């Protein structure tokens, strides 16, 4: 697999402090530049820019994937197997409310993966996944 270039994602948040605490203290992201209106994070090697938005958040539509309702709008990261399990334990210790609790999806099929969905303090849906066999990332 070739090296993956970092991506940049900008997304809305309610406030800087709850976002800083969640992404830095709970998820372990390094904090980059910030102002009173936005904050950047090193999100597992990628650049997230969280921007304060005072308007009402959009309703999250869902879709069925492997028999489970998942948010259509979401982002996250693919982690190494052990890192994914460590994050799942850290989220449980922080009493994170899961939309989809840590579990295995597509068991015994192409693309078998560990996955979990939860919301950040601003209601943004995140998914973290992992593959025992990273070559399954784009398996059909």
TrEMBL record:
Domain VOC, residue spans: 5-131
Signal peptide: none
InterPro entries: Glyas_Bleomycin-R_OHBP_Dase (IPR029068), Glyas_Fos-R_dOase_dom (IPR004360), VOC_core (IPR037523)
CDD domains recorded: VOC_like
A Pfam family this chain is assigned to: Glyoxalase
Protein name as catalogued: Glyoxalase/bleomycin resistance protein/dioxygenase superfamily protein
């Amino acid at each position: 697999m070739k090296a993956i270039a970092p991506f940049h994602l900008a997304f809305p948040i309610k406030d800087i402090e709850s976002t800083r605490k969640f992404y830095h203290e709970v998820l372990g992201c390094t904090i980059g530049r910030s102002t009173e209106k936005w904050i950047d994070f090193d999100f597992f090697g990628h650049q997230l820019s969280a921007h304060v938005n005072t308007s009402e958040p959009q309703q999250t539509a869902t879709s069925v994937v492997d028999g489970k309702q998942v948010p259509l709008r979401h982002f996250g990261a693919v982690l190494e197997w052990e890192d994914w399990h460590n994050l799942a334990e850290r989220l449980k210790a922080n009493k994170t409310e899961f939309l989809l609790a840590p579990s295995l999806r597509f068991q015994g099929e192409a693309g078998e993966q560990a996955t979990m969905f939860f919301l950040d303090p601003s209601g943004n849906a995140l998914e973290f996944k992992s593959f025992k066999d990273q070559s399954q990332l784009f398996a059909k």
